[in-house]
Amino acid sequence: MDKTSSISIHEGKPIRCKAALCKKAGEALVIEEIQVDPPQAYEVRIKILCTSLCHTDVTFWKLDWGPLARFPKILGHEAVGVVESIGDHVNGFKQGDVVLPVFHPHCEECRDCKSPKSNWCSRYCDDFFSNTRRYGMDSRFKDSSGEDIYHFLFVSSFTEYTVVDIAHLVKISPEIPVEKAALLSCCVSSGVGAAWKVADVEEGSTVAIFGLGGVGLAVAEGARVRGAAKIIGVDLNPDKFEIVGKRFGITDFVNPALSGEKKISQVIKEMTEGGVDYSFECIGITSLMEEAFNSTRTELNLNGFITHELSFEEINKAFDLLVKGETIRCFSSVVVLSPPEHSLSLLRSSSLSGPMAKAASAQTPSLSEQYHLENEVKQVKESPEESNDEVADEITLETAPADFRFPTTNQTRHCFTRYIEYHRCVAAKGDDAPECDKFAKFYRSLCPSEWVDRWNEQRENGTFPGPL
CA neighbours within 13 Å on the CB side: how many for 442? Predict the structure, then answer.
């Protein structure tokens, strides 16, 4: 097949083609004939050659709330295609070019696009999750009735033809096999780019990767090519190491479910004589990000900033010292009793002494285990005037049990937590309590049916892996 050939007979005219429509959250996609309008200014129409399915597509396929929960829509954002026609003011692209559509825009003009440290275009990312096009909400897709079909992440690749803004396009060599090129538009570029461009992993370094999904494995590949000496993979599923991970250069594996009472950061520091040089969190869980940070080497010298440690009663002396220029920082044990959350990792990773050490030790909350499911639960409570019913204890989700083999992602965490919230609410308020409806809506939109079926069975036989 000649990838560079274009179908110019439709230039400036609508094209009718097949597309997989998502008409309702969680329902099977429907293959239908749609109309794809010609590209407008700064847009190109692309014939999709190959597209792949990303977990993000699955997440938003199930989502029934928020700005991206609009139907019908065409999902898909990992793809490769050939330019069929171009709109006005399009420079740098022509008919027959092989291109990657990408959901992150790039205007090439703003400060962030010109910076080697950022890929978040400040010009076009303001409306990133509102799904707007450069000139408004009008869609380039129409169904058989002439009604608009929503775009998805500015790409919508589950169709034979799509229309994409040039800010979301990258031209590539036609020699790259299409099934491999499609992977470059999302997970591979994210992971390899993190290792190459962001971290700039060097030869002989040590690396930890939390989560061995597509992005995590791409990080491993990037670190391997850069010559990392030790690449530690962290995941609940050992098959991701034995069957897949080793092929991508992962040398060591840590299963949080088998680490006992040790935190994963402690395990990794013992494996690497003090911590890895680079740590990558590839799942998206806040507590996991903190643990990944704590797995790195400690090289911050904060002690040099602390020139005086005074009691709270000596607060005026601290003012005098600072005004006279005789101190960099004075610390009172009372002042640091409640440090900001984002500073806790720095405090824990430094050699502190005196009142500051006591304050940090006394107030620093213990980290969750590596794959703790974060407690974002808002309890259903009644005021004493409304009810004397006993309020349920706060839900704290500990380490996922060894038999919890679902993908440890944001979806899992929110899904599992909302499921528990719902059943605790029902137990406290009753099946018809309206305040339980929001929990039901959340977990039913986030949780695959096979997960729910399994948890229901476990609740009945007393083996449910969580607090109820």
Answer: 19
Residue 368 in any domain: the answer is no
At which of 273, 294, 315 does a domain end? 294
Residue 189 has pLDDT above 60, yes or no: yes
CATH number (domain holding residue 419): 1.10.10.140
Backbone angles phi, psi at 52, to 5 degrees: -120, 165
**Within-domain flag for 1:** no
Query: Chain-centre distance of CA 164, in angstroms?
Result: 23
Give buried/exposed letters for 125-139 (b at 16+ CB in 10 A, else e): beebeebbbbeeeeb
Are 271 and 250 found together in one domain? yes
3-state helix, strand, coil in the chain (%, to 5): 35, 20, 45
Tokens of 117: 């440290």
User: Is residue 32 located within the same domain as residue 114?
Assistant: yes
- Cβ atoms of residues 51 and 76 within 8 Å: yes
Q: Please give the helix or strand (H or E) that residue 6 lies within, else none.
A: none
**Domain containing residue 381:** 373-468
Domain check: are 396 and 274 in the same one? no
Q: What is the pLDDT of residues 113-140, one digit of tens each?
A: 888 777 778 887 655 555 556 655 689 9
Q: Give the CA-trace dihedral at 35, 160, 185, 100, to 10 degrees.
A: -80
How far is the C-alpha of 202 from the C-alpha of 31, rounded, in Å?
47
In whole angstroms, give the CA distance from residue 391 to residue 382.
8
Structure tokens at 228: 């990392």
In angstroms, the CA 165 to CA 221 distance is 30
Q: Would you tell me the crossing angle of helices 449-461 and 410-429 to the nearest 10 degrees?
A: 50
Enter the pTM of the model.
0.61
Q: What is the largest CA-CA distance in the chain?
A: 84
Q: How far, in Å, CA of 42 to CA of 323, rounded?
A: 58
Residue 346: what pLDDT? 44
Report CA torsion sign: 252, 254, 258, 259: positive
The region, left, alpha or beta by phi > 0 then psi within -120 to 50, assigned to residue 27 is: beta
In a domain, 2, yes or no: no
